[in-house]
Specification:
Largest sheet: 4 strands, antiparallel
Low-confidence stretches: 192-204
Distance between the termini: 50 Å
Radius of gyration: 21 Å
Structural class: alpha+beta
Strand order of the largest sheet: 2-3-6-5
């Protein structure tokens, strides 16, 4: 993990890539600090949500609320306050081999369902010191791309750093260093194997 990294160091390194001065604080009053302060949180969260990173998810049991939803469901659960997107999967148990359910609905900051116990895997606002080094590097390139126009006022630099971060337009955001980061992230994940050959079983 990138223990020494912070939002400030990531933004400062991105500014240095653009040939600008690093900032010492988001509140120092410079235009660079103000732009970084406004842009960084959204760019960080969007970059986190652009791919199912291995470090992005938490699993917790949700607390059932005493209120009753005015919908077709019986129960409602409070979603976590640090989430940055909807749950990836919803379960009724945390037992090994549990399969996700589909009988639920997300409404505002609550999960509605007929189940009496709910666990969720959800994307949360990962802190910089928890991020692996390849993702921190990706964030620096993403910030350099988005800072380049307001800092340098040069569209060619914007296009250059966009290509470094995510590649050409034809790559749909999966080129550049984004491809490198996702490849590294995927190396620690098991290969998906189809074990249920139900169509073949029926035919036999």
């Amino acid at each position: 993990m990138a223990a020494g990294d912070s939002a400030l160091s990531i933004c400062s390194d991105a500014l240095l890539m653009l040939g600008a001065k690093a900032i010492s604080s988001f509140n120092e009053g410079t235009s660079a600090a103000n732009v970084c302060d406004r842009l960084y949180p959204d760019i960080k969260n969007q970059t986190l949500l652009n791919y199912p990173w291995s470090f992005l998810y938490k699993k917790i049991q949700l607390s059932q609320l005493i209120t009753t939803p005015t919908t077709e469901y019986r129960y409602e659960y409070q979603l976590p306050g640090d989430r940055i997107g909807p749950p990836r999967q919803v379960f009724v148990t945390n037992a090994v081999g549990a399969r996700p359910i589909k009988g639920y609905r997300i409404f505002q900051d609550k999960l509605l369902t007929n189940e009496t116990t709910i666990y969720v895997d959800y994307p949360y606002a990962v802190q910089e010191y928890e991020m692996p080094v390849y993702f921190v590097q990706l964030l620096k390139y993403m910030m350099a791309w988005h800072l380049s126009l307001p800092i340098t006022d040069q569209i060619d630099k914007t296009q250059y750093w966009q290509a470094i971060a995510i590649g050409a337009a034809s790559e749909n955001g999966r080129g550049g260093y984004m491809r490198t980061a996702t490849t590294i992230d995927g190396q620690g994940q098991p290969i998906s194997v189809i074990e249920d050959y139900s169509l073949i079983d029926v035919r036999n």
